[in-house]
Structures are given as C-alpha cells and as structure tokens.
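User: I'm curious whether this sequence folds into something compact or stays loose and floppy. Could you predict its structure so I can see for myself?
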Amino acid sequence: MEGRKRLLMVEDFVLPDLIFLEHFGGDWLSFYDFVYLCFKEDFIKNPLKQFEGKKVGLKRHPLSSDNKEATFYHMTHEGQEEQCREPDIRRMERIRWPKYMMVNYKSDHLKVWRNKRGSNGNILIYHEEEGYLLVLADRGDYVLPWTAYTIEHRHRRQKVLKEYEAYKKAEAAK
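Assistant: Here's the prediction. I'll summarize afterward.
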C-alpha cells in the first residue's frame, strides 16, 4: 500500500496554473496587483509554519518603492543591483509555484539540495522539466523563501543539475 500512496502522490503533482497578463486584458497594474495578492495569500495570510522542521519566516525589509516585501520583490523582479531591479513577467506568472513546491518538496518531480554562497546556506528546490528554481535561505533555526526564477539557458540548467548531482554524490558518501 505504501508504494501505491507514493505513486498517487507523484501522479498528482501538478503545478498551479500560470497567471497571464492577457487574463487582465493587458492591464499591467491589475496583473501586478493580482500577482501580489497571490503572494500575500501564500506567504503572509496563510504562510507555511515549518519547512523540514524549521520555522518559515519572510524577508520583509527593505520594502520596495511600492511598499512590497523584499521577498515579493526578489520573486518577481530581476537584476543585480537592488535599487535597479526590473519586473520579470515570467517570475510573476509563476508566483503560485514557490509555496506549492515547498509543500511538495519530497515529490519525485523536484530535486532538492543544499549549497553555500559565501557564508549563507541555501536550500534549493528545482523543477527540472520547467527549469524553475526556488531558493530558500537557511538561517539555522528558520528558513526564508528568498527568490525563485526560470532558468532559460541550457548551459545554466546543466550547471544547476551538475551542482545537484555533486551534492547527491557527497551526501551518499557520508
């Protein structure tokens, strides 16, 4: 029976629908407001309480110029310089995916591993078929949803998979 339950869980893994600007008749502000409402629902009104036994927090500050939380800004905008990030419609279309992936991180459809960037530890959740990467900042006693984005270039996807495989190999050797 355990195998059957697992099979059903895997077959039932379906990412939430994308949110398209066209659904709002091309009205950018209505689209942006709805994307923010989805984020707010998932991460402020009904947040996950725990992830892998750790409390889930939210990076709220610094607020963006339109008073949105830092995590929302990172999940929906791109760019290296914090003050110059630009809206990324592909990230916005997928705003319902991060929480879903956190809830379903044990699914065979997702690859999960850890890495370090500088002194910061991260938990990465990758949907290979979609090329979508969710990054959680691991702060020891708690985790913060940090950013999420689509990886569009094949060489970058290969690099992510190589990092995942190296992590799995190192974990198996322990």
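Summary: Confidence is low (pLDDT under 50) at residues 1-10. The longest helix spans residues 154-173.
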